[in-house]
Amino acid sequence: MALLQIARLSKSYDNETKVLKDISFTVKAGEFVSIIGPSGAGKSTLLRCVNQMVPISSGEVIFDNAPVTQLNKRALRQLRTNIGMVFQHYNLVPRLTVIENVLHGRLGYKTTLQGIMSRFTEKEKEQAFYLLRKLGIEEHAYKRCDQLSGGQQQRVGIARALIQGPKLVLCDEPIASLDPNSSKIIMDHLKSITSELGITCLVNLHQVEVAQQYSDRIIGLNQGEVVFDGTNYQLTEEK
Ligand code: ADP
Ligand code: ADP
User: Fold this and answer.
1) Cβ-contact 13, 19 below 8 angstroms
2) How far apart are CA 48 and CA 44, in angstroms?
3) Which ipTM value was assigned to this complex?
4) DSSP, res 97
5) Probe ligand 2: pick from 12, 13, 44, max atoms within 8 Å of CB?
6) Disulfide engineering: 224 pairs with which of 21, 97, 99, 137, CB 3.0-4.6 Å?
7) pTM, to two decimals
8) Ligand 2 centroid vs 17 CA: distance in angstroms?
9) Are the beta carbons of 93 and 104 closer than 8 angstroms?
10) Sign of the alpha-carbon torsion through 203, 113, 109, 118
11) At what angle are helices 180-197 and 122-134 packed, to 10 degrees?
């Protein structure tokens, strides 16, 4: 069953240059899909169109059978609880602890952070600890995020993205700031935790080899166009 349908999607930021040109593809529930392509290809923009962080210019994005462009404010909030985000630079609140950052994911993008722990039920906290345990960082739960390594911070970022029980997680270059060893740990965790929880994954990457190793399917993007969609991406097709 299709969880996400993208149909003839175009996007321009300035009404002149099209950053995405007539993109169409469908993602099935439970699929792990990588989007690869050089810097500037439009990968980040594509993810931002899916959760409506930026308005699309034309075409349609249908998530869970509802067109995202036609959602009212309340439905848009609901959409964002169903779509988690993981970022290249983790986007954590450095002075908060690991567990506070994870629970912060339940507040959407609200900014008041004072007394964050007291706002959650024991059940919600238990869910946060469950994710930290799964991701192998439970022992760091009460450390401030700025005391962790990059790889550990990204695991916090994954836990935060998953705390609301999303159907889809969008990962924008999740390993681009990490060394190969930490990258492997992150990709292994991302793959196993999303598959265990039945969460669909759309991951922007620029290393073809990583995409090949982890994905059910690869979509190649170049200059805003889909240039490949399949399983066996050939290295020679890049560039
Ligand atoms: P990628 O993630 O593949 O590197 P991006 O989606 O970040 O690609 O960028 C695609 C193109 O869109 C680039 O030319 C970039 O400069 C442009 N772009 C991205 N974000 C904005 C923005 N907020 N305003 C204007 N142009 C943007
Ligand atoms: P990254 O690859 O780390 O996401 P980018 O340079 O692609 O970094 O984007 C950083 C920020 O700048 C993003 O929020 C993006 O929307 C914005 N941005 C990127 N390109 C442009 C542009 N040409 N004009 C305006 N904003 C841009």
Assistant:
1) yes
2) 6
3) 0.74
4) B
5) 44
6) 21
7) 0.89
8) 15
9) yes
10) positive
11) 130
Contacts (Cβ under 8 Å, ≥6 apart) of 223: 21, 40, 41, 42
> Ligand 1 pocket: which residues have CB below 6 Å?
13, 19, 37, 39-45
| Atom number of ligand 1 nearest to Cα 41 | 3
Contact 183, 11 (CB under 8 A): no
CA of 121 to the centre of ligand 2 (A): 37
Burial of 103 (0-12, 13-18, 19+ CB in 10 A): buried
**51-67 burial by CB neighbour count: b if 16+ within 10 A, else e?**
bbeeebeebebbbbeee
Instruction: State if residue 207 touches ligand 2 by the CB under 6 angstroms criterion.
Output: no
* Residue pLDDT, tens place only, 59-115: 999 999 999 998 999 999 899 999 999 999 999 999 999 999 999 888 765 556 677
